[in-house]
Fold this sequence. Notes:
The longest helix is centred in the N-terminal third of the chain and has 15 residues, at about 20-30. It is built from 5 helices and 13 strands. The protein has helices at about 20-30, 65-70, 105-115, 135-145, 190-200; strands at about 5-10, 40-45, 50-60, 75-80, 85, 95-100, 120-125, 130, 135, 155-170, 175-185, 205-215, 220. The protein is an alpha+beta fold.
Amino acid sequence: MKEFPEILLIDKPKGITSFDVIRRLRSQYSAEHDGKKAPKMGHAGTLDPLASGLMVIGIGHGTKKLSELTKLDKEYIAEVRIGERRSTGDLEGRVLEEVRVSTLDITQVQQVLESMIATLTLPVSAYSAIKKDGVPMYKRARQAEASGEVLTEVPIRDMEVLEAELLSLTWTDDNCVLTVRFVVRSGVYVRSLAEELGRRLGYPATLQNLRRTKVGHFSVTEARTLE
């Protein structure tokens, strides 16, 4: 029977939650150890179901290292759809606004991204897992949506961007998709960065796809799939 390491790197696929990853690892451990209960497990940073990429998992004594690992800088590859705004800040939500994007100049986008390399004071997505009065924001937002309302009172946070690099600009029908590499401090919400990028370009924007590629010195190229 093989033992799990104290720190395990997993490449999370899209479509499952971060807790689903932990649940599957626990099940796998028990299956490989004659039904023995899995050791304590945790992770150094949540990824939304629509996001993929690197999760740093602490197992057993490794969970004691997670409080420090969560503070590490992170690298993301984000696809930002320009010309569309959604209730959740990503493709899970309802379309709230659509406009035709006429032209976007690569130099203009690069200059805007350079201006975002700073500590930005931005609203957190109403559908984030951050808690207010002990209740996750996404629960409040879904309750409001069920009543036909939109949650507008959201936390404001300082978010530090260390690097912002345009990787590609592609056109699809009447909107544009920017692929951007962001390196950020802990506590940054990339959905907020996507919407801010749109605002600075003069258009609504939403996060189309997100992949976390690094956490500190850990890289997704070193990670294992759940299988």
